[in-house]
Amino acid sequence: MASREPSYVYKETRLNFEPSSTAFTIDLKLPSPASQARRQAKVSKNDAFRARHCATASSTYHRQYHSFPRSFLWRVLEDDTVLSIRTIDVCKPKKAFDTNLVLNFRFQHPIQPNCVALCDPSDHDALSIFVLDTANQLYTLFLRPDSFRKRSFAEGGLGDACKIYVPNAFNNFKHPYRLIAVNNDQLVATLSDGGHIRFDRNTSHNAPHAPWKETFYNAKGFLRGFRNMLGSRGDLDLTAAAAAVQTGLGLNNASFLFTVCLDHRLRIWNLNSGQILGAMDLLNAKRDPQETGKWQLDTSQTNLIRIVGGTEGKRLCVTYSPVGAGEFKFWRVESDDENTVDVNDLFPGSRLIPTPPLGLDVWTLADFSVSERSSSRGLRMWILWKNNMAYRVQELTFLAEELPDVWQSSWRSVFSDTAIPTAQVSGPSDSTDATEKWLQLILFPGRFPRTTLEAALSAYERAIGKPAAAPRNSQGLAESICSAIASTSSLSKTSSGDVDHEQFRASSEAQWRKFYRILIELDKPRGEALALAYEPDLGMPWVVCADSISAIREGSILEKICHNPSRRFDGSGELSTLITTGRNFLDGFSDGMLQICHSVLRSEIFEETSKTDQERIQFFSDKAGFWRQISDEDCAQVTDALGQNFNLVTTTLYQRVLATCDETWEPQHPTEHPFTEFGRKIIVKGVQDMVELQWNVCFSQLILLVHMEFEFDRPEDALHKRVSIGAVYRNLLRALHRLELIRWLASAQITTSLPKADRPNSGSNGSPAVLKRQGEDTKVITALEGNVGHLLGIPEFESIPSGAMASTITNIITDICAPDSDIELQPQYIQCGLLVRDRPDLAVELSPFCDQDPFSTYVQGRVHLALRDFTLAATYFKKAAYGMSISQADPERHSSGLLDDTEWNLLFAGLPRYYGHIITLFEKHKAYSFVIDFARLGLQLTNSMTKDAEIVRTELQSRLFTGAIATSQFELAHSTLVGIKDHALQHSGLRTLVQRMCDNLHNSELVELPFPGLQNAVDEYLSQKCLDAVDVVTGIPYHQVLYAWRIKRNDYRGAAAVLLDRIQKLRQLGEGDQVTGDDVLDTAVTRQYLMLINILSCVDQKQAWITTEGQARPANGTSAFEGGKRKVVTLADIRKEYQDELDRIAAIQNDQFGFAADDEMEIL
Fold first, then answer.
1. Which of the residues 474, 664, 673, 1036 has the least number of beta carbons within 10 Å of its own beta carbon?
2. Neighbours of 443 (CB within 10 A)
């Protein structure tokens, strides 16, 4: 193994712990009877960030007796004062709710190292957590599944779910070293002096006062243990257990504790009696008693023993000795009763020394796991190597009897992508700004948590001397980063006086890289491996890190080829050569060359073309022009790998390449267990990794194909003479089209509402805290998860072979990326979902992926309508009109919630109804000019063949009238109104039209409109408005409009009645004494009198009269038409009244008026 390169068969998929919603995190403060205060040490901001978000200890626990939630992850944070618990189940039963809540238990005192234990009560569907803190308090937390499912359950308080017990033994010079949960009713705490304390739950009547019964055992006897107790004060004795594991060996009433002690010995305890049943050297070696220090174990080594097996009375014990180069030892453990245990070395003559990863770095074996695959298929072993922050994982599958033979040659490795991604350098011709590239890199979903980005921004601001910014909201993080970086760059001018854009670009690029370096340094501690965990039910290995977790899955065929370029798998020799050659050829391209090739590729993928395959390849070669920049050395490397004239390349070989990128999965059994949100995140992250690899392979193969097609000396040697390059080119473009769509879906983030159970309690008092939490009712997910997450799941567990979950996840990932996948990704429906979520900005980015069918075209119209690009939206709606209006027998009503039943009923039901639906859409956006256009189209196409033609026509006329009114096209509104046959609707529209024209002072246009058959209605409406008018001076001049309306229609007596009514209301407002001109007799009232006299003079003398309802007038004169009854007023009466008004004004001007209200004025 040491002389061979590693065989990467597995792939690591790393996930962050950042929840998709802040509502998922719940802080719970635990009580503490102890009174001693905890000291707060001063730390730097970077150390504070690490302490808050990076765990010091972490692992997983998988329940035995209950199915969901089954798997839990616990972490110790914030200087060992917080215990964070969450579920990490990959799948769940049908109709079960996700358990997304993260419970952070805050302790008053730090948690003791290695003193967190979890167990699964057999008689309750719950999780028991036992914790010892530095105040020697034993906490017992009893959590039911609803604690991880419902915020109300968790926020309601722990109550009896949290119990605290202070063991008496720890008050008597006993110091806990390890805590092991045997079951829900029994705990074992190993001690620093080599002994241990067994805690048995007290079920008697005094249980509330003494919940645990303590039993102490010591490996050295009572007297020696007492001397150690007095002298050591907590110093570790060599017999202290560095690692311990409990097993019953499948025997009734048997309980054994296997401990690996600091003196390099394996001891077996009978937990029932407290006696040591056996002790032996960890490597079964004979040691010199004088060399005790040489064999002493380091206290930091805790993962030293594993016990596996399910046969009654038999187990396999695997121990690891870290002394020297490190060595494993396999033991056969057998027992017939609870008082005896036989432990035998399986391979006494073999040294099972693990070989670390290749390289000059010093690797330390940090953890390992052994699992039994089945009784006939042997065992599987996983080991975790660490080198500072880096880690590697190796795997070995073996039969027990063959282990010495396969130990050195059959190890397989897990590929960890340790390459740090970076943004391409922006050139002068690059259409994408450097800022946009860096933001896409930094804010890529799942790459960096928000807390890390904020910490990096704060560190960067301190580095450039910028004062600390105010707290940032969720929408302002990107803007804050851009603002900080932009503050360090400024536009300068060249010597010629022009703006130096190149200097600004270079300066901005340098600052982005500086910020990115800070971000990477802060992110590194998050990836420090803490434990290697194994899920026995699904056969799924995990690497638990400080602030992330990595799922280990089996690599796909393509991944195995790309991650092992120098190795050849079964039948993959030529295939691997072609794929590796293409990737190496592409690696020689500069960033600028890649940008040009990408732009040409987009046109090939998205644009319709009538070119032949050969013309398309020629077009790509001419537009990309990469042949101008590749060197002879690059060409020679391709020839050396593929042979002269590329003889290795055949159509069959290309078909194998395409098949490798088209791995579909059809499970033999239906999906019974949908993925949880955590499981969907694994799939999304795996797809993100897989799609980048497949895209790179397909793109490199397309570039290589174009290169080889035009790289020949003689025409008969051209590649197309023996390879179907046209079909290969089309299939590569087809694969790239789907991969480009998946890349977009995996990188776009959307906001979705939380289920009601996950939302914070709304409260009833409207406090600021409650109002603040209203923004926590949403979660952020990728568009890929939002659109295909509900389709993902696995069959029944019984149908999956043991340990096949790692390959099942890979099958699902490759199936999503495959062009022939059964998982359809229809962009138009995805756009519908984005429009429902009010994200037209994202929906428009999917437009290039959409087909040209009617529904897709209609959706494009909806997208641009939401973007308020009404002209383009109207174009798409008209283009889709015919296809969306013709009747269909059974149209598919699927729109991701964009269309309701009412709207669907208007589609595929004829053009008039389709246009009516479009009119409604434009009305919602108040785009009334387009309402008019589509209403006219609908009316033109409404005929006798239209179902319910009159109803449709009336509806369209109403919409047309509304649009005309809104755009002040009153002539159009008038003509539409006249054509409406619905009497009630017509008169309602009439009132609206007259009102709107009067409000907008289109009085002259109103008077000129003919209103055939509606003139009396207009007159009545205006008369009513005049009657209701109070302010006839500054209000809408209804009297003037009605006067002009009647004059236009030769109704002089009616016009005179309007003037008389206005005179009366002017008098009521006191306008009779307001002089409006140079002459004191020129008032608003006298003017109206003159107009009234003139208009009545235009009719026959016998007809020069009008009727009026008597109106009360001010007590400053009398009138010929006072009173409350209807009276006839003649022209003579009006003239007399006019003269009286003039006399009254003159008398006032001469100060001739009464002293009291009832005095008559003396007129001289």
1. 474
2. 16
Rounded to whole angstroms, what are the CA distances from 933 to 387, 560, 862, 936?
A: 71, 60, 17, 5
| Strand (E) or helix (H) holding 851 | none
d(CA 802, CA 536): 9
Amino acid at 112: Q
pLDDT of 128 over the 50 cut: yes
**Element of type H or E holding 9:** strand 8-16
Yes or no: say if 864 and 873 are a contact pair by the CB < 8 Å rule: yes
The H or E element spanning position 228 is helix 222-232
- Supply φ then ψ for residue 254, to 5 degrees: -105, 145
Is the bond into 69 cis (omega within 30 degrees of 0)? yes
Rg (CA), the chain: 43
For the purposes of burial, counting CB atoms within 10 Å of the CB of 621, is it exposed (0-12), middle (13-18) or buried (19 or more)? middle
- What DSSP state is assigned to residue 1150? T
Q: How confident is the model at residue 519 (pLDDT cuts 50, 70, 90)?
A: very high
Is the alpha carbon torsion for 440, 446, 451, 452 positive or negative?
negative
Query: Tokens 């926020």 correspond to what residue?
Result: 155
- The tokens for 465 are 């001397």
| Average pLDDT over every residue of 404-409 | 88
- Separation CA 817–CA 743 (nearest Å): 10
Q: How far apart are CA 455 and CA 1132, in angstroms?
A: 94
Tell me what pLDDT residue 40 has.
52
Q: What is the DSSP string of 498-536?
A: -B-HHHHHHHHHHHHHHHHHHHHHHHGGGG-EEEEEEET
Q: Position 839: which residue type? A: R
For range 894-916, the mean pLDDT? 90
Q: What is the pLDDT of residues 28-61, one digit of tens each?
A: 988 877 655 455 555 556 677 888 889 999 999 9
Tokens of 793: 């799941």
CA 354 → CA 9, 327, 396, 406, 410, distances in Å?
18, 7, 11, 12, 12
Neighbours of 641 (CB within 10 A): 16
Q: Which residues of 887-904 are buried (b: 16+ CB within 10 A; e: fewer)?
A: eeeeeeeebbebbeeeee
Bridge partner residues of 1120 (DSSP): none
User: Residue 842's closest CA among 863, 826, 868?
Assistant: 863
Burial 220-242 (b: 16+ CB within 10 A, else e): eeeeebeebbeeeeeebbebbbb
Buried b (16+ CB within 10 A) or exposed e, 758-774: bbbeeeeeeeeeeeebe
1129 CB-side CA count, 13 A = 29
**Distance from C-alpha of 87 to C-alpha of 149, rounded to nearest angstrom:** 10
Task: Tally the residues of the chain.
Answer: 1164
Q: How far apart are the first and last CA of the chain?
A: 135
Positive or negative torsion for Cα 1016, 1021, 1027, 1033:
negative
Encode 532-562: b = buried (16+ Cβ within 10 Å), e = exposed.
bbbbeebbbbbbbbbbbbbbbbbbbbbbbbb
Separation of alpha carbons 1015 and 1021, rounded Å:
10
Q: 759 pLDDT exceeds 90?
A: no
CB 256 within 8 A of CB 247: yes
Q: Report CA torsion sign: 1135, 1136, 1140, 1141.
A: negative
Q: Cα–Cα distance between 877 and 178 in angstroms, integer?
A: 71
- The Cα–Cα gap between 190 and 213 comes to 16
For residues 560-571, give the mean pLDDT.
79
Using CA atoms of 607, 608, 609, 610 in order, give the dihedral in degrees to the nearest 10.
180
Instruction: Give the phi and the psi of residue 853 in degrees, each rounded to 5.
Output: -70, 165
Nearest to 107 by CA among 191, 194, 200, 33: 33
Task: Map residue 397 onto helix, strand or coil.
Answer: strand
Instruction: Tell me the pLDDT band of 72, cut-offs 50, 70 and 90.
Output: very high
Q: Which tokens in the block code for residue 296?
A: 């002493």
CB hemisphere CA count around 544 (13 angstroms): 21
pTM above 0.90, yes or no: no
